[in-house]
Design a protein that fits this description.
This protein is an alpha/beta fold and 263 residues long. It has one domain: Ribonuclease Z/Hydroxyacylglutathione hydrolase-like (Metallo-beta-lactamase, Chain A, 4-Layer Sandwich). It has eight helices and 13 strands. The protein has a six-stranded mixed sheet, with helices on one face. A five-stranded mixed sheet has the order 9-10-11-12-13, with helices on one face. The longest helix has 18 residues.
């Protein structure tokens, strides 16, 4: 196997959700405002997007996208400049330049912008597409039927359960099967020349949950979720990875965001 590197990685600035903190981790109280980032990664063989955030129109009109009840509970914050298509264009790319979209999973806050990239190849963990169409009752509100209906029109590749996929065959981008939050939850390891990141998707929601080794209250499979959390934790320790817990507000504050790029 050749040894390669991704050239650049941008953390796309993002709208936020303000939710009941107890929905993120047992024992918390009050409200918590969390980021919903996406990551754009340039590789010699393609332009890769990890997650696409909420539906871009929901920034200005969440009720039209999610309905009154869900919109009221989300507390979406952001500006029109935080639309994912505008952020990609601000970096000098077109949405049509994106060749690969990796879905950590298909909840509305991670897959809402997928429709902007119909010509890309989409990647999801095994069972995720089926689960999106027929979700368990717990957490089913996280799948938006109008968005799910579009999936059949696109090209998908499934990552087999409990295996990893070397996206470009050079070790630079590894899609890791980390199920539990949903059946097909995946994380992404990105090796740059000067740093290696592990983007957790929703395999972990908060840094405190990682420290305590606690699952997310609405995980589909609690035992699998804990196993995936521990896998990520041990890998980060042994490989000295920079772990980026995507919804954690402290992680978002610690790292730098576009237009800054990691190389």
């Amino acid at each position: 196997m050749s040894v390669g590197f991704a050239r650049k990685m941008w953390a796309l600035d993002c709208p936020t959700l303000t939710v009941d903190a107890v929905t993120l981790m047992y024992g918390l109280t009050g409200k918590m405002t969390i980021p919903m980032p996406a990551f754009l990664i340039e590789h010699p063989k393609g332009l890769v997007l990890f997650d696409t955030g909420i539906h871009p129109d929901a920034i200005e009109d969440p009720v039209s996208i999610y309905g009154q009840e869900l919109a009221d509970g989300l507390g979406i914050g952001g500006t029109i400049d935080q639309r994912i298509d505008r952020q990609i264009e601000a970096l000098g790319y077109k949405t049509s330049d994106v060749t690969h979209v990796i879905s950590s999973h298909l909840h509305f806050d991670h897959a809402g912008g997928h429709f902007l990239f119909p010509n890309a190849t989409f990647y999801a963990g095994q069972g995720e597409l089926a689960f999106a169409h027929f979700p368990a009752k717990l957490g089913s509100f996280c799948f938006i039927p109008e968005q799910v209906a579009q999936y059949k029109n696109w090209t998908w590749r499934e990552v087999a359960a409990r295996t990893d996929l070397d996206l470009f065959g050079d070790g630079s981008m590894i899609i890791m099967s980390t199920p539990g939050h949903t059946p097909g939850e995946v994380s992404l390891k990105v090796r740059l020349a000067n740093r290696t990141f592990l983007l957790t998707g929703d395999a972990i929601h908060l840094r405190a949950a990682l420290d305590l080794e606690w699952p997310f209250p609405l995980d589909y499979d609690t035992l699998s979720a804990v196993h995936s959390l521990l896998r990520i934790k041990r890998m980060a320790e042994s490989e000295e990875l920079s772990l980026w817990i995507n919804h954690d507000p402290d992680d978002w504050a610690q790292y730098q965001h576009a237009p800054y790029c990691y190389e």
